[in-house]
## 1
Amino acid sequence: MSQFAINIMFVGGSFLLYIGIAIWAKAGSTSDFYVAGGGVHPVTNGMAIGADWMSAASFISMAGLIAAGGYANSSFLMGWTGGYVLLAMLLAPYLRKFGKFTVPEFIGDRFYSKNARLVAVICLIVASVTYVIGQMAGAGVAFSRFLEVDATLGLIIAAIVVFVYAVLGGMKGITYTQVAQYCVLITAYTIPAVFISMQLTGNPIPPLGLFSTHIDSGMPILDKLNQVITDLGFNEYTADIDNKLNMVLFTLSLMIGTAGLPHVIIRFFTVPKVADARWSAGWALVFIALLYLTAPAVASMARLNLMTTIYPEGTAAEPIEYDARPAWIRDWEVTGLIQFTDKNEDGRIQLYNDTPEFEPQAEARGWEGNELVVNRDILVLANPEIANLPGWVIGLIAAGGLAAALSTAAGLLLAISSAVSHDLIKGSINPAITEKGELLAARISMAVAIVVATYLGANPPGFAAQVVALAFGIAAASLFPALMMGIFSKRVNNTGAIAGMLSGLTFTLVYIFVYKGWLFIPGTANLPDTPENWVLGISPLSIGAVGAVVNFAVAFVVSNATEEPPVEIQELVESVRYPRGAGQAHDH
Amino acid sequence: MAGHSYDAEKYWKANLRLIFGSLIIWALVSYGFAILLRPLLAGIPIGGTDLGFWFAQQGSILTFIALIFHYAWRMNKIDEKFGVHEE
């Protein structure tokens, strides 16, 4: 059977499974559609949160980021997991007790203000739409490489599948497909990792393999990697960094951004009890950690594998000839994600870090520049091929990458559609709408959101790469502080909350736009985006944490200068703090 | 709840204490051991690198899991003690 047929079988099989689940779990009420009827078991919910959370970025890109940055990029590992501690202790149980359908609804009720709800809706939509573009684009890459279809056609197929199970099943359909998608993606991620860890260290458990001995050299694998890459002019993989303030703030921004992302928060509304919300945060992190503990092992091992593929006789000897390159390099060259230019025309692939410091060594060896550019996003996808694994593993990776992208896309689309149908239409425009009408409105807004996301995924705006900073910055600087103050302070009032959200958001956006361009339009940046120009060395990616501090400070000062919230609001705060009497998530 | 406002306050204080303690450990392993205090842990070798690197890539994640389960378990006890648990 050809590789193409195997890939089709795996991807097609997984898609049929998702659609089958959707038909089984059709939503009959708004409660089904928004919170899966509120009857999801905490372990099931933990698994669904895992798939909801782990996106194309986690599955496809994260290991590549760590492989490229080594220790310095550990922020992604800590940031994207540490947020669950905040969710479990500061947000999820109380928002579950509140027992409504959406995040803006809590902000609107707690701060007794339609404007506060509207600000929250706008933050939610901007954060979620920017995030969903990345998912659709990731699905497009996976399709074009593995199914040899045009990326746009691939996207449309993916969109139709999401459409079927998300529009039909709402949160109920999404929950159970996410469980299936979690199983597909975690199997796909760990199997190649186990094989590679076995090949390099003899240890079948990748996180242990990371700290084991490299079989071929007899050295610890991280030592071996450090040696190989420093020989070629790269920084040591495990080297400490100087700018610790930025690393702290970047990690913190990712953590509070994670805790403030609405598509994750709404998953906690689907469990029956407050205690279940706490447990499901724990289970979610267990399921997420299975991938996040494997990723750093994949990162270092794949990087070492790549280096030994190019320099089979060691870094002191000449690299391989271009004509003798392995098949996977040929395959990925077709997609443009690996590029080779024979700068010194010796027919060999010189892969090194061509910095001024390395120049004398490079010159002595007759090298005239780095000749191989490898897009770091392909690391996980190409992993099975780099390690010579059988064809079915490649098919599994294709299905896994798509599962990661589609499960997150569905969660985001639900967050967007519920904000439109529940917060905008029922909350503001037409409060008298019937449940049937609202359900229809939810389905229509979901369908519109899918069309918009597919279009943007096929024609990604130039700023697609910056969206992570934007989505996390917005969630960290606007939504997280507002939610937390709504629960932990009885004193913060409507004026304070709105002033806080707007100033945190404005501060964060201005700082990002100054370095990345206003609305990311090229050429409009006021300062070059380099460490020398950052205020106190704080990168625009790390500014969300500072924006959150601004939000908290402004909200407290303004609230204390204006009148206390009314008694019934203080009672509402009181009631979300005590689990008794939670009942199912309900309408009004 | 209205009749038990004294207990309610004690319940909330117990929750805040537990959160505060958990978040100190949360910050210590990630911002402390993995980033700011890494040079201090440089002398403790582990598989070709140092303990700070381990905390950055594995140790903090494992600690986060333990913290959440500990919190969920303790809160269940506290809920029951103050009689605010769900039926």
Note: The longest strand of chain A covers residues 338-340.
## 2
Amino acid sequence: MDFLNYDFMQRALLAAVLVGITAPAVGIYLVQRRQALMGDGIGHVAMTGVGLGFLLSWSPVWMATLVSVLGAVLMELIRWYGRTRGDIALAMLFYGGMAGGVMFINLAPTGSNANLTSYLFGSLSTVSESDVTAIVLLAAFVVSVTLGLRRQLFAVSQDEEFARVTGLPVRALNLLTAITAAVTVTVAMRVVGLLLVSALMVVPVAAAQQLSRSFAATFAIAVAIGVTVTIGGTVTSYYQDVPPGATIVLLTIGAFIVLTALAAPLARRRARALAAAHPAGDPAECAIPASRESGGKVGV
Amino acid sequence: MTEPVISLRGVRAELGSRPVLRGIDLTVNRGEVVALLGANGSGKSTAVRSVIGQVPVSAGEIELFGTPRARFRDWARVGYVPQRTTAAGGVPATVTEIVSSGRLSRTRFGVFRKADHAAVRQALELVGMADRAKDSVNALSGGQHQRVLIARALASGPELLIMDEPMAGVDLASQEVLARTLREQVAAGATVLLVLHELGPLEPLIDRAVVLRDGCVLHDGPPPKAVGQHALPGHDHVHPHAAHDAEPIRTGLLS
């Protein structure tokens, strides 16, 4: 445990744990709404923010937060108003965001593609004190939204039309989800990088689903998986000199494969228990209805 | 019995450039059970969706409980059962979790108290699904799923129930449960607006039928008697729904 003696490792582990909590916490709502790739799109847009940060000599983390929040709001508006060509508009937003990032960072006096790489793929060892402050504040926002408004966000993500008829401010909640996802992307940017952030939002949720029947359990298991893989990946990268972002994502996919393999016998046992508990409602096998037998002979 | 709960006057609506409702008048009074009938594309689903604000209206007036719909905020008084869709959410959810969404309108900032949990349990008992409370909705049959959606609508203790094709694709056992649940609600004073393909097992409950054709009211009065093949007992009249009934078109990548 000697890695705990280093300041940079303490900062890296703190950032990693916060990402492990926040990414699946937001991701579960995106998966529920079937917008699993939204995190990826926001990651592309955030690159323009990083580039602008270098160009204007502002904090790239805060600048990326600002730009990705604007991008996420724009995506939500396109989803809202966009009819047939919405996907093309989104594609332009994504690739415009990426191209903008590369352009701005090369225009910046201190920037180069090398700087950009640390944001694209994560660079835990260079997380600074001010980065940690930003990450802690942003993560606190994400956790308070995803836990505090869980019932409202669940209702809107499950059935938007019904949610509107219960009087929920659906448009505001959709915007809040998009903004929270954007904030999460910038929280995770230094740890797993903009190109891999979406994996940490989606894969722990997909893995948790293999075991769970309820939304609450899926949420808890996904966050547990998220924290485990981010800590595991960070520590592994300390001992083995491998890139932490890639390690974390590969560990997450490994967790998904293991849980999927474990889930098959579990699902069989559940099906048997269900059939035993509800013999009348869910017959496991075809049976001739009793009334047919008592009703006399059936001629063929 | 003459206080209108739902009132539509001269309502017009278009989907794209095609007129779907062409000046509809419809009143549902307190305690009444009104069935909205008509063929596919007659505008019956659009009419109901205009009442709850899901379809923009180009002309006419809509009132709920005497309040213009745009100013209506008291949604806990309305229980809505949407047309059952096969698309579930992307994450597993239990029966209780789904039904709890229906109670949100009675809570302050979504914080559940003892009474709210009790109301959710009671709604599940009403539709005979209390023993499945902790099961995933993905493990349910079509009819059981429909009962869950009705429990969700009942969880807020609504005075008005709006149901879009509650009997479509529902097995016989669940149809009986639904008819009984509805009978109890009506006996307790609920007002009901139903979209139906045909009257079916709910026929004895229905006070008045409004038949639409091509976006116009064709008949408003006692329920018409079924004729021909439609009158046969057990005739299950299920049609695939036209594309205009579907959700607004989603933009591929994010939806």
Note: Residues 244-277 of chain A form the longest helix (34 residues).
## 3
Amino acid sequence: MEKILIIEDDPAIREELALLLENEGYAPLPVTDFTDVPTQAADARPDLVLLDIGLPGRDGFSLCAALRKVTPAPVIFVTSRDSGLDEVRALSLGGDDYITKPYSIPVLLARIKAVLRRRGGGSEPADTLEAGGLRLSLTKGTVSANGRTAQLTRNEHQILACLMERAGKIVSRADLVETLWDSQIYIDDNTLSVNMTRLRGKLAELGLAGAIKTRRGMGYQL
Amino acid sequence: MTFREFLSDRLGRVALLLLCLLLGGAFLLATGTQPGVLALLGIPLLLVFLGVQTADFLRQRNRLRELEAVLEGLDQKYLFAECAPAPGDLYERRLFDLCRRAGRAMAGAVSDARASQGEYREYVERWVHEVKTPVTAARLICRELDGETRRKLLAELSQIEAHIERALFYARAQSPERDCLLRQVDLGEIAARAIETHRSLLIQQGVRVETQGLDRPVYTDEKWAAFLLGQLLQNSARYRREEPVITLTARPLGKQTQLIIRDNGMGIPAWELSRVFDRGFTGSNGRTRGSSTGMGLYLCKKLAGFLELGLSIASEEGEGTTVTLTFPSREDLTEL
């Protein structure tokens, strides 16, 4: 489990962030005493550091430089200061990424995952997803079942991936739309219906006509 | 100053002189002076008077021209009295003294106003950073709620964020050079950032966003450009009709790059189109819907001017609105 050091002085954010990261399968290490953060970081040996800039005592910029000396862990700045100059300064001081508050949670998690992967700490994302007798290739954008393969469009691919990741659970239409927007597919409810119909058509050709079930008033389920 | 103006200004003096000459002449005639002698006395007197007035006129005119040239050359015109060439006569010296004292009081007032504006800007920026912390915490806390409530709350939080952002950029627009960082950015990244910021509003309004050819570099400040685009997206989402679609299309225009933002919304009546960038202008759409501040497009225009972005709008009522952003080429960009 990857350890993530949280250096954030606002208690509400610190606690909620720790909870969120725990739920996502990381080991959060929230810092509550800001007197000697570098030593704490050296002792904790984190895999990643989330660093606020406006901290009591010492600001995040100088802290970043100090952290760089004691730990090889990548540093992500998470701050409400959003001027371009701050960002350049943060990155030139050895920060690996710069996220501005208020951030959306999926974005934050995606950036954490990306930085960990870049540092070789995180696991490579699996190339294939398997669920309900379906096999989805994430790089090729194809789905196969019963020895047959179908090519999917980007939208269909994302819809199916989302359902497969939560196989067995009901995924509401609104959640599906949200997930698609996360992947920069900006569709509306009607377009979702159209894509869903096409996707079902393709799955039917693979011999899995009823694979995606509609739960009236609730959403879809694989 | 023309000679006629000068004369009319001195009408009293001229009239008095003529009256004196007439009375004097009449008196001399009555006491037996010959008309020839009278003419010999009167004509030179008149000529001397005219000569003095003409010389006065020329001197004053030249002096005024000189002062006007000085004023033209000044960036801060209120420093005029400090920079003008020293006056010759006593009366003018006194006048200048008065002007200088007034000017100093004015300069003091201006610098006080500047300082307090700067302080206010700093306060707004600090306030914005502070208020973002609880909003972030609220976003994190929302995560624990069930689907529908969470979505509604997130949408409200996004609205708060949009207002905060506008306040921040409004403060920044007063002295934009302080935060501006021009560099090469992918247009797609700017669009993704703007859409992400306003996704709650866009999804809630059932908007579909289509993008075409956005993977090209532009030279601009990413944050400002994203803010600007965000204002346009918000407008498109607010003034939508059925099945709203926003298309973002990029195309090269010589060395420049154009980003075209087209929606199929309500559109803007032709007679309002020229005023949409005015500060505080709310069109008929804004008034019927309420909640329009007339600030969004005004800020866009201001920031676009600073980023050297071309910003133009076209619209047909009931059909939709098209906004075109023209990003300058690298060479065209004046160094900041």
Note: Chain A touches chain B at residues 10, 12-13, 16-17, 19-20, 54, 80-85, 88, 101-105, 107, 172, 174-175, 177-178, 181, 184, 186-191 (CB under 8 Å).
